[in-house]
Amino acid sequence: MLPQEIIAKLPSQYEKALASGDLFFFPSSVHHHYESGVEYEIRLCPALQKKPQLPPPDFSSTVETPKNDSKPFDPFAPPYNTGLFVGYLRDQRQDEEEYVILLNKYCVVPEHFLLVTKEFRLQSSPPTPDDLFNAYALIVAARKKLKNVIAFYNCGELSGASQAHKHLQLIEIEGDGPPIEAIARQIHLETPDKPFSVTRLPYANHVVRFPSNLATSKPEVVEGLLTQSFVSLMDLAISSIRYDVDYPSGKASYNVILTLEHMHIIPRQTDIYTLDTGSTLNINSLGFAGMFLVKSDEELEAVKKEGVTKILRAVGVGNVHDEQVKGVTED
Ligand code: B4P
Q: What is an example of a Pfam family matching this protein (predicted)?
């Protein structure tokens, strides 16, 4: 299926999966919280306390294969749950189907869906040019239907990922985009094609702004630009990590947020934050998009009291962007 066919099929497939019980929707309420000039969204979802506990992901494999009996269950391997299966995504460039589109079984926002590699690939491996191209193609297709969809990728053990089989996630955002996108748009760039950072945030965040015609550019241009953006942001993310003497050993973890206008990369040093109350939050890419998820009123109050910025700094790494890139000013 082409990206536009996937987008067109999502609403009916979602309704079907909900009705058949293949998909669980957890109702929530959104609370706005102002801090450091950012209007954060904190989503309170008590129903998630009833979500079944999934086994921890196994990121240890170094071989990109196979299921064997000692491997934990892979929900993204065939045979697919027919209720959650939207279709195989056809890549317009190669006329190939390397991805399957599945609905998120446990969703807080309706029609939250996953771009999953057909073959097993590790969630700790970087997004490939094909991954980025196809995620962007879905974002563009959604925009043509007047839907504001973003993609995100929780890469690595400390990024908030809960499944080891490679999957990017796509979610519809109300309004203009996630809070961090509003902030990124306000940054004045002297050299628009250079990476920049929201320097008033204390954690490392690396961003590239796309040319305004990217969505209508030729596929090879889109792929080239997304790849180049990723590579330049990863250079900065690794550099940020190297400033952090306490960064855990092993492969780096990071979050990628892809919108129609920007790519954001945020290096991570841990996935879990323990609130003063003792309760723990698992922070994924959406947290760094400015969208927090809490499961009780107590957690909501604790997050507001301790501060979103402090929490994000604790699970990210320090912002040393000024020392890395020159020629950028913030309005
Ligand atoms: P991961 O990258 O591995 O992890 P995650 O999004 O952080 O989800 P997690 O599983 O830790 O969920 P959480 O309770 O924190 O993504 C795996 C994805 O696969 C998830 O979307 C998961 O639901 C889905 N999945 C698992 N088993 C599946 C199966 N058998 N078939 C199909 N899909 C399956 O959060 C609950 C949900 O809320 C997650 O979807 C999360 O992405 C989402 N969420 C988090 N913060 C949010 C926010 N601020 N606003 C809206 N949604 C938010």
A: ATP_transf
160 lines ligand 1 (CB under 6 A): yes
Which pLDDT score, from 0 to 100, does residue 73 have? 86
Check pocket membership of 75 for ligand 1, CB cut-off 6 A.
yes
Closest Cα to atom 45 of ligand 1: 293
Distance CA 215, CA 188 (A): 21
**66-110 residue pLDDT tens:** 445 556 789 999 999 999 999 999 988 888 889 999 999 999 999
Cβ neighbors of 100 (< 8 A, separation 6 or more) are 76, 80, 85, 87, 88, 89, 116, 118
Burial of 23 by CB count in 10 Å (0-12 exposed, 13-18 middle, 19+ buried)? buried
Q: Which domain holds residue 49?
A: 3-53+72-330
What is the rounded CA–CA span in Å between residue 300 and residue 54?
A: 23
CA distance 197 to 320: 9
Beta bridge partners of 24: 106
What does the block give as tokens for 331? 């309005």
The answer to whether the CB of 105 is under 6 A from ligand 1 is yes
3-state secondary structure of 72: coil
Count of domains observed in the chain: 1
| Token duo for residue 228 | 């180049």
The CATH number that applies at residue 295 is 3.30.428.70
Which is nearest to 59 in space by CA: 72, 76, 43, 44?
72
279-314 pLDDT, tens digit each? 999 999 999 999 999 999 999 999 999 999 999 999
Cis omega (within 30 of 0) for bond into 178: no
CA distance 154 to 161: 5
Beta carbons of 274 and 280 less than 8 angstroms apart: yes
Report yes or no on 60 lying in a domain.
no
